[in-house]
Amino acid sequence: MWGGMGLKGIGLGVSMTGAVALAKWLSPLLFRVAAYDPVTLALVALVLLLTALAAGLIPARRPARVNPIMARRAD
């Protein structure tokens, strides 16, 4: 799960860099928010990271509960 979070962090960094780079063209589409608003960018990054964490945590819970010795004996 944590290996996937590294990839998600890289993707988040690339997307935030792209958002800042394209802010000039995105500014007419924004309503009541500045194109370079750091609070908004930080909140978006936080929401995306929490969503990525939940997406990795939910499928990882079930295999984490399995006893490794029992799983090895079943093979």
Short structural description:
With 75 residues, the chain is mainly alpha-helical.
Describe this structure in words.
- The chain has one domain.
- The relative contact order is 0.13.
- 79% of the residues lie in helices and 0% in strands.
- The longest helix has 28 residues, at 38-65.
- The chain contains 4 helices and no strands.
- The protein has helices at 2-21, 23-26, 38-65, 68-74.
> Averaging pLDDT over every residue, what do you get?
82
Record field, number of beta strands: 0
SSE-based structural type: mainly alpha
Biggest sheet architecture = none
- Secondary-structure element string: HHHH
Number of helices: 4
Give the count of structural domains.
1
Q: Could you give the topology of this structure?
A:
Blueprint: H1 2-21, H2 23-26, H3 38-65, H4 68-74
Structure characteristics:
single chain; 75 residues; mainly alpha; 4 helices; 79% helix; rod-shaped
